[in-house]
Amino acid sequence: MSVVVAFVSKKGGVGKSTLARALATVAVRRGLLTTLADLDSEQRTTTRWQRLRERNAILPSLTVKAFDNADGAVASEQDVDLLILDAPGHAPRETLEVVSVAHLIVQPSGAGFDDLQPAVDLFYELAAAGVAKSRLLMVLSRMLDADEEEAARAYIEVADFKVLPGSVTERARYRDAHNRGLAFIESSGEDLNAAAAVALGSILTLIVQKLGTHRPDRSPIAL
User: Fold this and answer.
1) Res 113 pLDDT > 90
2) Whole-angstrom distance, CA of residue 113 vs CA of residue 96
3) What is the pTM of this model?
4) H helix runs in the chain, sequence order
5) Domains and CATH numbers, the chain
């Protein structure tokens, strides 16, 4: 049975697809049979990114498939270890459908109130709909410095939601990496022991635990 991880957001531009692509890349590197499902039927940005990756012969090769809905993705990819759902933003009905089939729901948020408030609101809505808080994970994204990261982390913790360790820093080279079919962690000069690796490793650790893989400790998996 696949572990299903959904990346959701109430608004665009917070790094949802950025993290979904990076997690897929890390999971494949760690030997997990992984499918990244592009559920945004209007944009298909992740599918287009995969074409760039294939055109530039970037390894490891990733399995990226377009689906119209989450149920179709789950039915099609039952034999993989990990199914990553890159959900569309601004789509309440589709978000509820995605959440209903996911073991873990990951939402990135920037540091500003314009990002944090919608992110917290979405998790409040999901919790009110009966989604266990243990399935709801926040990741800090597009951080500029340690002070704003600390403030954003405190905001989310006051709202009583789990925010994962680590964060994704705002860097121009990440956008350049995406333009060439790379995940941001594959960009030139990326430190695989940095905060972004910690965040991805935390998610991957939870995935491995759900797969039932034996690990001698509970520390994040090395990237």
Assistant:
1) yes
2) 24
3) 0.92
4) 16-29, 45-55, 70-76, 92-101, 113-128, 146-158, 172-179, 195-211
5) 3-211 (3.40.50.300)
